[in-house]
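Input (Peptidase M16):
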Amino acid sequence: MYKKHTLDNGLRVVTEHIPFVKSISIGVWIETGSRYETATNNGISHFIEHMLFKGTTTKSAKEIAEIIDGIGGQINAFTSKECTCYYTKVLDTHYELALDLLADMLFSSKIDEEDIEKEKSVVYEEISMYEDSPEDLAHDLLYQSIFKNSSLGLPILGTNDSLKPIGRSEIIHYMKKYYTANNAVISVAGNFDEDSLLKVIEKKFGQWERTEELTKKQEPLQYNFQSVSKSKDIEQVHLCLGFKGIPLGQSKLYPLLIVNNILGGSMSSRLFQNIREEKGLAYSIYSYPSNYKGGGLLTIYGGMSPHLLEEVTALIYKELEELRTKGLTSSELNKSKEQLKGNYILGLESTSSRMTSIGKSELLLNKIYSPKEIIEKIDTVKMEDVEEIIQEIIDLDHVASTVVGKIEKDFVLNKAK
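Output:
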């Protein structure tokens, strides 16, 4: 049972009481990420996430780590395109300490100039590590290409050039704009006494300032369909194909999830069985949908030897053409529904995943769907819904592609069929 409370400053608190566990997961969600950046401050959201772990006015970075380790808990954070989350998981008896740590990091971080320069070196190494992961690089290039006219195409980590000029004043200005009570959600899942929990949250976060000037980007996304390649002296080539997807919150997401399962979302999918299992042409091949405000993507990825690129691409397009012309069978539809339901329910078996589910949903959709509602949405998908989404999404004349690996300088991927 989910409950929602809104403090006087506009901070939303969503909770799910799970009495049979002994843990509690707490997340503080901020609606900001690389999508809210520009080319000049790209990477600042992720960098702020790093800086809040560098020590507060009362605790050093080492002391923060020692406090959470001392109670056997976990504390971490992540930044995505549209949100940033700081979260902890502790025994239910330590929830007040966990909330105190999160509040201290959010409101009392030193953000020292010397620490900023040290941490930049860490993030530069993180960017270099990302560059050395060609699979990640192929996905990143796809976003930069297909969303080149939108900040959604900016890399979450930023670049060395965009991070270099960022200093304390830029960080403080950015946090004042986005790190506000009415642009945030606290989500809690686990074992707790509701009244006690809310009193602590009110005490720690009730003075968080709100802003009346916050404007969030809601413009529809523009898509750019072209082929981009990057030559790298590595053993495999890494291919990404991108199709226009479904925006966050639309009911069409469920037919797309069903189609994705059959296309490349599992080990029994068509792409995996045909290209890897039957023909042995790739070790890794899969597909997945991504959803954002105003738009989304369906991405297909494959990693293979350079001399197999054209053959694998042709086989992918053949599967896509067959999907467009023949659709799914009724048994595939039913199988995919059961698979989706199973994956969804199994994914809710920890307090961390439940905290993430309700926090992100409230932050980006202002609504939380119960497991029963999600299952109903999956069950009510009809064959005509699936056929409609296939024709809408699998548009072979509008495909973005990226290739990373040993390729000719002027290489352009042909849409082989």
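The chain has a mean pLDDT of 94.
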